[in-house]
UniProtKB/TrEMBL annotation:
Removes the N-terminal methionine from nascent proteins. The N-terminal methionine is often cleaved when the second residue in the primary sequence is small and uncharged (Met-Ala-, Cys, Gly, Pro, Ser, Thr, or Val). Requires deformylation of the N(alpha)-formylated initiator methionine before it can be hydrolyzed. It comes from the Bacteria. Monomer. Keywords: Aminopeptidase, Hydrolase, Metal-binding, Protease. It catalyses: Release of N-terminal amino acids, preferentially methionine, from peptides and arylamides. A divalent metal cation 2 binds at D105, H168, E201, E232. InterPro entries: Creatinase/aminopeptidase-like (IPR036005), Pept_M24 (IPR000994), Pept_M24_MAP (IPR001714), Pept_M24A_MAP1 (IPR002467). Residues 11-239 form the Peptidase M24 domain. One of its GO terms (molecular function) is metal ion binding. This is Methionine aminopeptidase. Binds 2 divalent metal cations per subunit. Has a high-affinity and a low affinity metal-binding site. The true nature of the physiological cofactor is under debate. The enzyme is active with cobalt, zinc, manganese or divalent iron ions. Most likely, methionine aminopeptidases function as mononuclear Fe(2+)-metalloproteases under physiological conditions, and the catalytically relevant metal-binding site has been assigned to the histidine-containing high-affinity site. PANTHER family: METHIONINE AMINOPEPTIDASE. Belongs to the peptidase M24A family. Methionine aminopeptidase type 1 subfamily.
């Protein structure tokens, strides 16, 4: 069942989203060669709790940390660790904050120092694909319109669009209906209505789109070891169109 949110609920989610956006602003300043993702996890958890919220991911279905880390060929759901980030790495940090009963959820890919032109282009296409998807979160459109736009754009560059993991509704639960694939056909899927709150999060790879799961049962990687980027915002659908909740 798709849960429509009231204006009051959306305002609470806006504050949850602001907390998440603050975390990403801190991460953008901290991510440099030599820092560990375990340090980043501690920094994010401290900020979330100082803002009167709790980390959405920590303890969710047994996940052990405040952030999900996707380094280089990892697609999503990796654990923070003690290994220092290296110049030329790309790392996606997924942050969630639970505030007054509602979640905000946003992931962003960061370059660690200088990266190649090939990776810079992948990152730019990943970001653009997110915003193309957001533009189509309009009342009267369908969920399939979002995925079709993302897939069409990313595949122009011969990139892979991950299919095993998708976007989702978000609210009192971290994962709600509807699922939002980042591929597919336009004019299919559930009708988009004002009051929906959605997390759109395309995962785009330099190679094949298929994933393989590590033995930890969480960490998903590209099957061919290719680099993956991911960009995600939580948004509210209003009568006037989409409003991003996870930015300052």
């Amino acid at each position: 069942m798709i849960i429509l949110k009231s204006a009051r609920e959306i305002e609470i989610m806006r504050e949850a989203g602001r907390i998440v956006a603050e975390c990403h602003r801190i991460l953008a300043e901290r991510i440099k060669p030599g820092i560990t993702t375990l340090e980043l996890d501690q920094t994010v958890e401290k900020h979330i709790r100082q803002r009167g919220a709790t980390p959405s991911f920590k303890g969710h279905q047994g996940f052990p940390a405040a952030i999900c880390v996707a380094l280089n060929d990892v697609i999503c759901h990796g654990f923070p660790g003690p290994e220092p980030l290296q110049k030329g790495d790309v790392v996606t940090i997924d942050v969630g904050a639970f505030y007054k009963g509602y979640h905000g959820d946003s992931a962003w890919t960061y370059a660690v120092g200088e990266v190649s032109e090939e990776i810079r282009q992948l990152m730019e296409v990943g970001r653009k694909s997110l915003y193309l998807g957001i533009e189509l979160a309009q009342p009267g459109n369908r969920i399939g319109d979002i995925g079709a736009a993302i897939q069409t754009y990313a595949e122009k560059y011969r990139y892979g669009v991950v299919r095993e993991f998708c976007g989702h509704g978000v609210g009192q639960n971290l994962w709600e209906s509807p699922q939002i694939p980042h591929f597919g056909r336009a004019n299919t899927g559930p009708l988009i209505k004002a009051g929906m709150t959605l997390a759109i999060e395309p995962m785009i790879t330099l190679g094949k789109w298929k994933a393989v799961l590590d033995k930890d049962g969480w960490t998903a990687r590209t099957v061919d070891g290719s680099i993956c980027v991911q960009y995600e915002h939580t948004l509210a659908v209003t009568a006037e169109g989409p409003v991003i909740l996870t930015e300052i």
